[in-house]
C-alpha cells in the first residue's frame, strides 16, 4: 500500500511520465477522482456528504433480505460514529428482475435489490472512518459513489479526500474483481488530468468496459488510477 501512496505524491509533478500506462490488450480498472474547485455549496462547512450504493442479486426473497441486512449494518456503523438516522436519506430503492451485464436478456428467476443512501457525516475524519468500516465488509454488495464537501479549508480537505478516494477506489476494484472470481493486481499507474471534456467523454463510454468503475469526489483536481487484473 505504501508504494502507491508515494506514487500519488509524484503524480502532480510527473503526470506525463505515466501517459503510456498499459498495453492495449491489458485489462484495467479506471477510477477517477473528480475535482471541482467550486466545492459543494449544499454541504455544511467541515462536513461530508457520502453516497452509498447497495446492490444484491439472487432468488427472491433472499436478495432483498441480504440488501436489507447490508442497509441495517450500515445504519449500525453510522450510529457508532455518532451519525443520527435523520442524517441518512434514502434517495432510491429499486427491486426488480435482474438482467445480464448488457441487459440483453433477463436472468431466469433472479431479481436485484438496489438502494442509494446519502449520508451526512459531521467531519471529514468521520467520513474517513466510515469508509474504512465499509471496506471491512464482504465484497460485492456495498460501494461508494459521490463524496462532497465544501472547500473553505481546501488544502487540508483535499489531502484527506484524495487518500480517502483512492482507498475507496481500490476497495471497489477489489470487490468487483473478487465478485467475478479474479484477483486485483498492482496499480499500473496514477495519472493527473485537467481536461474535463475529454474525461466526460470517456465516462459516457465507460459502460462498454466491464472493468471500468468511476468514483467522483468534489475536491480540487483529477486523478486516474489503473490496476492490472489476474
UniProtKB/TrEMBL annotation:
Pfam families named among the record's database cross-references: SIMPL
InterPro entries in alphabetical order: SIMPL/DUF541
Keywords: Signal
Keyword Signal: yes
Signal peptide start-end: 1-26
Protein name as catalogued: SIMPL domain-containing protein
Top-level taxonomy: Eukaryota, Rhodophyta, Bangiophyceae, Bangiales, Bangiaceae
Amino acid at each position: 500500500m505504501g508504494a502507491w501512496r508515494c506514487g500519488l505524491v509524484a503524480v502532480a509533478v510527473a503526470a506525463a511520465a505515466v501517459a503510456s500506462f498499459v498495453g492495449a490488450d491489458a485489462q484495467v480498472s479506471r477510477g477517477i477522482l473528480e475535482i471541482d474547485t467550486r466545492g459543494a455549496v449544499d454541504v455544511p462547512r467541515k462536513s461530508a456528504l457520502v453516497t452509498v450504493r447497495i446492490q444484491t442479486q439472487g432468488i427472491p426473497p433472499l436478495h432483498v433480505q441480504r440488501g436489507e441486512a447490508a442497509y441495517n449494518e450500515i445504519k449500525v456503523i453510522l450510529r457508532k460514529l455518532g451519525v443520527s438516522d435523520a442524517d441518512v436519506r434514502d434517495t432510491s430503492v429499486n427491486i426488480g428482475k435482474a438482467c445480464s451485464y448488457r441487459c440483453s436478456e433477463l436472468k431466469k428467476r433472479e431479481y436485484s435489490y438496489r438502494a442509494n443512501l446519502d449520508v451526512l457525516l459531521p467531519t471529514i475524519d468521520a467520513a474517513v472512518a466510515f469508509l474504512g468500516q465499509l471496506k471491512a465488509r464482504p465484497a460485492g454488495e456495498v460501494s461508494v459513489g459521490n463524496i462532497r464537501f465544501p472547500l473553505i479549508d481546501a488544502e487540508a480537505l483535499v489531502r484527506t479526500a484524495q487518500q480517502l478516494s483512492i482507498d475507496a477506489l481500490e476497495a471497489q476494484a477489489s470487490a468487483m474483481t473478487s465478485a467475478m472470481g479474479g484477483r486485483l493486481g498492482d496499480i499500473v499507474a496514477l495519472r493527473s488530468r485537467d481536461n474535463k471534456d475529454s474525461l466526460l467523454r470517456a465516462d459516457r463510454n465507460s459502460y462498454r468496459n466491464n472493468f471500468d468503475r468511476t468514483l467522483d469526489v468534489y475536491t480540487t483536481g483529477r486523478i486516474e488510477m489503473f490496476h492490472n487484473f489476474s
